[in-house]
Amino acid sequence: MAPGSQLEAVKAAKVLMVGAGGIGCELLKTLALSGFEDIHIIDMDTIEVSNLNRQFLFRQSHVGQSKAKQFSVVLNGLDNLDARRHVNRLCLAAEVPLIESGTTGFLGQVTVHVKGKTECYECQPKPTQWTLPQFWQHVKMDQEKGEDISVRKFEVANAGAWRRELALKAIPVLLLHFVHSVVWAKDLLFAKLFGDRNQDNDLNVRSSDVDGSKTTENVFELSPDEDPISYGQRIYDHVFGYNIELALANEETWRNRRKPKAIHIKDVLSEISFQQNGALENCTNEGTSISAMSTLDLKNPQDVWSLEDNSKVFLEALRLFITKREKEIGSLTFDKDDQLAVEFVTAAANIRASSFGIPMHSFFETKGIAGNIVHAVATTNAIIAGLIVIEAIKVLQNDFRSYRMTYCLEHPSKKLLLMPVEPFEANKSCYVCSETPLLLEINTQTSKLCDFVEKIVRNKLGMNLPLIMNGSNLIFEAGDDLEEDVAANYMQNLNKVLAELPSPVTSGTVLTVEDLQQELTCNINIKHREEFDEEKEPDGMVLSGWLERAKDDQLLSNGQSTLLGTKRKISEAQESSENLARPFSETNAANQEIPQQIDDNNDDDEDMVMLDGPPEASKKKRFK
Amino acid sequence: MVTQPASDPGLLAFYAAKSNQPRRGEALKTGIKEEDDATLWANACRVMDRCSEPCRGGKREPAGLLCLPQSDLPNSFLFSFRRLRIEMEGEELTAQQTALYDRQIRVWGVDAQKRLSKASVLVSGLNGTVAEFCKNIVLAGVGSLTLMDDRLVSKDALHANFLITPDDANSRRSLAEVYCSSLREFNSMVHVSVEKGNLPQFDGSFYDKFDVVVVSSISLKDKKFINQKCRERKKRIAFYSVECRDSCGEIFVDLQNYTYSQKNSDSTVDCHLEYPTLEEAISTPWRDLPRKTTKTYFAMRVLECFEASENRNPGDTSGLDLPVVLIWRKKLCDLQHVNESLVPDGLLDRLLVAGSREHPPVCAILGGILGQEVIKAISGKGDPLKNFFYFDAADGKGIIEDISPALRS
């Protein structure tokens, strides 16, 4: 139990924990043991970005007064960038200190964000989370150039910001190819068969090798008199046989690439006899416990099935969906906890992998890939929770000179397994915690307002309920409580090219973008630009002003040389980031001498580590 | 990252083909010399069985033992089974285990999880830090955990301890009993039990039941003694000690001669580490240690001398002891030919005032590090720490110190 004044501060504190997952559970225990008496918790699952606006905490009780204001400190144990950004903004608006955390496997980190004292969570650019089509597009470009798909792109597409910073983990190239197959099985095939059929299947269009035209559209329909097994065989032959043959017909595609081979059901299973017998029908399992693996007696999820087994699982899973979960078809979305769905995706991905000469993977591994499952160990969470409480106590005592961000490493760096680093001061041009205007280069003649809203306002600025104004004219507003005619008007605007809006947006226009919930306002200077580099600027627009765009681009085009060797450990990442760290008096020296980490002549707290853990470290200043 | 499962039929078929055509129906007994190889062989047959040809309808049918004289086998075949055996050891993880440990299996792999589920850990001396450690390894799915501490639960023990409820404080049960019933609720798949008595009084054979021994809240003398006992056994028993004094903590590790596999960029390298015992480690002349060695190391040694000389229980100290402790510091520093400034007054005072009080966040950190280390040692995966770990909430550093007599700076 903490002594004296510390105990007073702890007892009086009203703490908000955001996220009740792995870190949250450990944190709650450590807070309680440390003497905290007033702890409020919001569970992670209830603050998906999709329902942020419905959260009591996130609703404004009075204009300009967020509910967050009542707390002495906010402690984050979140798992996604969007929620982190949102909480950061609320904390800034309410001027409540924020302690942020994250873990992956044995790695973790804790950072402190106090307005006026340290940088905010968003002062450093966070990597954009790419959508799958973007990822897919990049993969295609790599293949065309004859390159292997880089580790980085997989990470960018699949990992959250924290994980990407932390776990620069080696992914074998063949596994990446397998990831393709999983993405295909999950987002194309599964979605096509069991999801909303009316929805645009982006990947379908993009995989131009396959003729995804109207003629194939009906193939996926189950005719009324068709039995599920024949239907399954028909689908099987279509996607693994016919489509591949079709793709093979285009010889140009395969000039420098290994040709896939078409797989037909009759070549794999000489006899299709699913015992539509007692054992099967007696199985009265409901919902997600229905399993093709148990019907087929495939017990070990770690086993890699043969092509034959995969084909059986494919047919059996499809059959089970049709016969046992008929009502859900048409509205299913992939869920990693849906046994049958994972079985189907595993089988489909493996059959496709087999067709392309890629090694097949087990159910267990496929589930991890398809569900983007975060590696987690309880010990790391416990350590991180301890570090959070240590920082929280400092924050409550306003002991800002002692604030530290701490990295928990898997391999020690200079003897340190837990590495404290002084927090950095706020980035003066951070668009979130300063009022710096942003600059957007965009083709105002071709880009539509909806592109701007999606790619910039939502993806880059992380706003959920934006309101966009051109001078005093309101051109767009999000929300579900709008008048019908107003909403219709906005819908029209969304589909208009910027320059053709009722109040045209052209070079020189200043747009004001606001999110009232986040109490965040940004001014964006628009600059018209005709052309964009498809590879380096896939959005077709470039936002700059608060961050080093050049650095971000470097990350995208030159990542290998700066931070991502193919096989890196975090300790090595730390080593390399030391090269980026620099003494605080310098402003722009790239090759500064590595600052001395531990000064053993001082007994006191002066012996600080002066380096920054995460890679993007070049523009930081030591916090004074 | 992509591990080939033990039962890969392709791999086995390959080796089977290389092994002069397996012949069925011959006596298995012929050609088996060592007991070890017999087990190996039985396992090999089990693997073969599982991989026998699937019959119609998708069901596998056991094909009966594949029997062939062992002498017929080329070495590579046996070798491959030796490797497979590691993966096959014990039973497969149950579906329940696989589901519960899913996230961590993704971190350290199935093999490690299997080894973990067969390991036995003994803990002697229970406190808040040890509670954190126990929770971590119970959640991780260690095979068994044996708890030793006959002290009755007191109100003081409630501090920094989530395994004891206020009701327990008046229950007149021992700490070990209370910990045991709480820990069982954390994970029903782990066998948690209580052993009564005082560890230093147990004879050597008792230690053979365990793979890992963790001690805390005991005197230096007992630590050295227990460490030595672990050393004397035929099997390798990992020894750990952990102490927390408020915001400061120390972990000591003795893995004896330890070989583990280290994953490099492309290959797995076998690494070898030689650990000193606690006695050997702390006998390292201070002048031989690097200048940067953490001051907590020296401060803890001074306190040990003080506690031993006054016959105090570990952590039974207060700020009032400072003058006497400073005399001990002088004695020690003179003996070691170092300047007294090596052990700052402030640090000594802080540790004395703290006594046996633990700061809960520090317990979580020490218990977390110790848990990870024990998991590493059991699974043979990951670089283990050698041989001291220090954490101090005052500067936030978690430092590894290698203090071995052979090490000269």
UniProtKB/TrEMBL annotation, chain A:
Binding site for Zn(2+): C120, C123, C430, C433
GO molecular function per UniProt: ATP binding; metal ion binding; SUMO activating enzyme activity
Keywords: ATP-binding, Metal-binding, Nucleotide-binding, Ubl conjugation pathway, Zinc
SUPFAM superfamilies associated with the record: Activating enzymes of the ubiquitin-like proteins (SSF69572)
GO biological process, any: protein sumoylation
UniProt domain THIF-type NAD/FAD binding fold: residue ranges: 6-69
Pathway membership: Protein modification; protein sumoylation
Biased composition (Acidic residues): 600-609
Record domain Ubiquitin-activating enzyme SCCH: where: 263-367
Residues binding ATP, per UniProt: 19-24, 43, 51-54, 67, 79-84
Official protein name in the record: SUMO-activating enzyme subunit
Organism: Vanilla planifolia (Vanilla)
TrEMBL record, chain B:
Domain THIF-type NAD/FAD binding fold, chain residue ranges per copy: 101-395
Compartments where located: Nucleus
GO biological process, one term: protein sumoylation
This protein's record includes keyword Nucleus: yes
One annotated GO molecular function: SUMO activating enzyme activity
Assigned protein family: Belongs to the ubiquitin-activating E1 family.
Protein name: Ubiquitin-like 1-activating enzyme E1A
Lineage, top ranks: Eukaryota, Viridiplantae, Streptophyta, Embryophyta, Tracheophyta
